[in-house]
TrEMBL record:
The keyword rRNA-binding does not apply. The keyword Transferase applies. Its EC number is 2.7.11.1. Gene3D superfamilies: paralog of FGE (formylglycine-generating enzyme). This is Serine/threonine-protein kinase pkn1. InterPro entries: CTDL_fold (IPR016187), Sulfatase_Mod_Factor_Kinase (IPR051043), SUMF_dom (IPR005532), SUMF_sf (IPR042095). Keywords: Kinase, Transferase. The gene is pkn1_2. Residues 41-260 form the Sulfatase-modifying factor enzyme-like domain. It comes from the Bacteria. GO terms for molecular function: formylglycine-generating oxidase activity; protein serine/threonine kinase activity. SUPFAM superfamilies: C-type lectin-like. Coiled coil: none annotated.
Length: 264
C-alpha cells in the first residue's frame, strides 16, 4: 500500500471518529513481516549476550509521514506544536511546520515527519494501535539488504548507505516512496532519516567515563573497542552513538520514526 493510500485510510478513520462513528482500522495495513532472527550488538559489555533473539514481528513499510502525523495531532490536540508540554518535546518540535495543523511547503505530506520527540513518537504509535520497535527489532530489520538478509555484504546496499551518511540533511526531505525496498519489503530504514526506537536510552551509559563511578566501563575507550563485534560496521556505531546522545524530549531535523507490532 503506497503512502497516499495509507494516509487516506488514516484520514478516513479520523473523519469517522470526528463524526462520532467507530470504524475499525486494521493496524497491520502498510506493515511488513520481519522473520525471526538474532540481533548482534555492535558493542557490548562482558555481561551482555553476544546476540539477542528476536521473535517475528511486523514493521511499518516506511517511516511515519507528515500526513500521518497531521492526522494524529488533529485527533489529539495536546500533541500540537503550540500545546505540547516542554517536558515532552523541546522548543524545535515540528518547528518546520507552517502551523499547528499546516505542515506547509517545508514538510511535504509524503515526506518523513521529523522534529518529533520520543514521547511524541510513542504517543503516535499507541494512537495508531502499534508501538515503537525495540533496538533489537529495528537493527534486525535494518540488517537486511536489497536481496539478502545481510546487507553489509551487498556492494550496492553499502554504496547507498554510506552515500546517504556522507550527505548533509536536505532542507526538504524527499518522499518516502523514493526509498528502495529491502528484502523484507521495508523502505527507508537507511537513506531517509534516523529513527527512534523504544529502548533508545539503553544504547550506552551517559556521563564522564573517568569520574562517574556508575558507568559500564567495558563500553568506553580501549575496552569498548576490544568488545566491538564488527569494527567495520561504521553505520552501526553511528546509530549507537546517536541513540546514546539523545534525551526523550529531543527533536532534530533528521530524526523520525516508524511503528512496529507483535505478531499474534
Amino acid at each position: 500500500m503506497n503512502s497516499i493510500t495509507r494516509s487516506l485510510r488514516i484520514a478516513l478513520a479520523l473523519a469517522s471518529a470526528v463524526a462520532g462513528r467507530c470504524e475499525a482500522v486494521d493496524a497491520s495495513v502498510g506493515m511488513q513481516s520481519i522473520p525471526t532472527g538474532a540481533y548482534v550488538p555492535v558493542q557490548r559489555s562482558t555481561q551482555d549476550p553476544e546476540s539477542v533473539p528476536v521473535a517475528a514481528f511486523r514493521l511499518d513499510e516506511r517511516p511515519v509521514t507528515n500526513a500521518d502525523f497531521l492526522a494524529f495531532v488533529t485527533a489529539v490536540p495536546k500533541w500540537r506544536r503550540s500545546a505540547v508540554s516542554p517536558l515532552f518535546a523541546d522548543a524545535s518540535y515540528l518547528g518546520h511546520w507552517a502551523g499547528d495543523l499546516e505542515p506547509g511547503a517545508r514538510a511535504p505530506a509524503d515526506a518523513p515527519v521529523v522534529r518529533v520527540s520520543w514521547f511524541a513518537a510513542r504517543a503516535y504509535a499507541r494512537w495508531a494501535g502499534k508501538r515503537l520497535p525495540t533496538t533489537a527489532e529495528w537493527e534486525l530489520a535494518a540488517a537486511a539488504g536489497y536481496t539478502t538478509p545481510a546487507g553489509k555484504n551487498e556492494p550496492a546496499f553499502n554504496r547507498d548507505l554510506y552515500a546517504w551518511l556522507a550527505r548533509p540533511v536536505p532542507d526538504i526531505l524527499p518522499s518516502v516512496a523514493t526509498a528502495r525496498a529491502t528484502l523484507h519489503g521495508v523502505r527507508g530504514l537507511h537513506g531517509l532519516v534516523w529513527e527512534w526506537v523504544d529502548d533508545f536510552n539503553t544504547a550506552m551509559v551517559t556521563g564522564e567515563s573517568r569520574a562517574d563511578t556508575g558507568l559500564e566501563r567495558d563500553l568506553f575507550c580501549g575496552a569498548g573497542a576490544a568488545g566491538a563485534k564488527d569494527t567495520s560496521d561504521y553505520a552501526a556505531f553511528m546509530r549507537s552513538a546517536l541513540r546514546s546522545s539523545l534525551q526523550a524530549n529531543n527533536t532534530t531535523t533528521s530524526l523520525g520514526f516508524r511503528c512496529a507490532s507483535s505478531l499474534p
